[in-house]
Amino acid sequence: MANELFILTKAILPLPDKHAGLKNEEERLRKRYLDITMNEDVKNIFIKKQKFWNSVRSFLLDRGFLEVETPIIENSAGGAAATPFATHHNALDMDVFLRISMGELWQKKLLVAGYEKTFEIGRQFRNEGMDTEHLQDYSQMEFYWGYANFEDGMKLVEKFYKEIAMATLGSLKFETGEHKINLGKKWERYDFESLIKEKTNVDIYNADKSEIIKKLKELNMEFDDSVGRWRLVDLLWKYCRKDLSGPGFLTGQPVELTPLAKRSQSDPRKVEQFQVILAGSEMGNGYSELNDPIDQEERLKEQKGLGEEGDEEAMEHDEGFIEALKYGMPPACGFGFSERLFSIMMDRPIRECVVFPLMKPENIPDIKKKDKK
């Protein structure tokens, strides 16, 4: 009964078979548009992801936090221990880096400026390995809360995660891998030193580097014995955490592993840090921010020395940040988590939870052949 027919688009390739679908993982991720078209479960992941980030933003805005945007390209990669992506800025003729944190040092400068509550949600980049939990570019959230400490942070974060789970899943319970998680039950406290002692019999403050290496070999842990002693201690912790389903908070971390955190008043070897433990891994990191410019400068100088010795994850010594601290930064709690939290809620590898993950080109050109033009 139609009077006219208009062709809206040319669909000249057939969709995959409805029953067989796309079976090859690489093909599914490379042709994600087909994966979403053919798989309702995949389509729903990204609807839930939007609810996830909306709940993050709403939670913070409802509590008076100001959303900010800080630079993605930086003169020095600060705010975390990670290997950055480096590039060259042609207009200014200088080497620059893609940020490895969600504006940590910038947001602390905003604390100096008088903004007492800020947060940012955006992309950050780390030029490191890929696995089921890690990507090189991913979304991250960080907030900074003036006149609060890590104890205040833990109370807020527990409420935060429960609200996110309800908004995303409609429940405080979910399963991921072999772990059954209930965010509604009492959150545990795990002590860094005690847990390593209990599970490996290593006293992290008295054992020398050779003892730690010996234990790592016994545990069949991969490691680089050229890195510093505390990096090896951190590997011991990574071994210990894998059986912890959580929810809980890891506390009592050594000063050497967190150069930007305030020292513990009860034990100056440690810092006022808390990490959310879920499904055998860290799913969020926060601490009472170090606001003593003298202590901070000494620690960053130590980090610079480690970098010169070959530690690729050592932090940069940012003189501009130290100068800002000298004008007076209020005591504060900072905290952040990445979209890895969403991936464990979905019980999927993190790459599966990215709409278009970075893939190697199917036909990689021979870079050795120079362009003769």
What does this protein look like?
The mean pLDDT is 90. Helix content is 35%, strand content 18%. The strands form three sheets. Strands 1-5-6-13-12-11-10-9 form an eight-stranded mixed sheet, with helices on both faces. It has a three-stranded antiparallel sheet with strand order 2-4-3, with no helix packed on it. It is of the alpha+beta class. It is globular. The longest helix has 23 residues, at 40-62. Strand 7 and strand 8 form a beta hairpin. It has a single domain (25-187, 246-353), classed as Bira Bifunctional Protein, Domain 2 (BirA Bifunctional Protein, domain 2), CATH 3.30.930.10.
Shape: globular
Question: How many strand segments?
Answer: 13
Number of domains: 1
The chain-level structural class is alpha+beta
Summarize the structure.
It contains eleven helices and 13 strands. It is α+β, with helices and mostly antiparallel strands and 373 residues long. The chain is globular, with a radius of gyration of 23 Å.
List keywords for this structure.
single chain; about 375 residues; alpha+beta; BirA Bifunctional Protein, domain 2; eight-stranded mixed β-sheet; three-stranded antiparallel β-sheet; 13 strands
SSE map:
Layout: H1 25-30, H2 32-38, H3 40-62, E1 66-67, E2 73-74, E3 86-89, E4 94-98, H4 104-113, E5 117-125, E6 137-146, H5 150-169, E7 173-176, E8 179-182, E9 188-191, H6 192-200, H7 209-218, H8 229-241, E10 248-251, E11 273-278, E12 281-288, H9 293-308, H10 319-326, E13 332-338, H11 340-346
Parallel strand pairs: 1-5, 9-10
Antiparallel strand pairs: 2-4, 3-4, 5-6, 6-13, 7-8, 10-11, 11-12, 12-13
Helix pairs in contact: 2-3, 3-5, 7-8, 9-10
